[in-house]
Amino acid sequence: MDIYWFDIEVVGAITDDHVEALGETLSGAGGIDATVQAGDRSGTVMFSREADDAVQAIVSAIENALEPFGVKIEQMPLPPQKLLELIARGRSGAQH
After folding, report:
1. DSSP-assigned letters across all residues of the chain
2. pLDDT for 52
């Protein structure tokens, strides 16, 4: 397995409350250890993932983030519209 790093740029003010909430959410989602850089206009969330390949790392990160909605990614590519459909189904309790 390899380690893949993610740097996610966030546009908009990032407060200390945001940093704390994000840290709690990420550590609760499989113990993801993240670094958050906060600022008045933007911020960056940095974390790593261990996986066999880059696609697996990205898919598992998305699945962890969307776990509260019951989303399970079964095919790639995953266009934004399909992702929104999976979230809607998860919210309604429909089968994925």
Report:
1. -EEEEEEEEEES---HHHHHHHHHHHHHTT---EEEE--SSEEEEEEEEEESSHHHHHHHHHHHHTGGGT----SS---HHHHHHHHHHHHHT---
2. 93
Q: CA end-to-end span of the chain, whole Å?
A: 28
As averages over each run of 10 residues, the pLDDT of the chain (96 residues) reads 87 82 71 76 85 87 77 80 83 63
Tokens coding 57: 């790392």
Two structure tokens written together for 89: 């189904």
The CA-based dihedral angle spanning residues 8, 43, 50, 58, taken in that order and rounded to the nearest 10 degrees: -20
Among the listed residues 47, 17, 54, the one whose alpha carbon sits nearest the alpha carbon of residue 32: 47
Q: Are 41 and 52 in contact (CB under 8 A)?
A: no
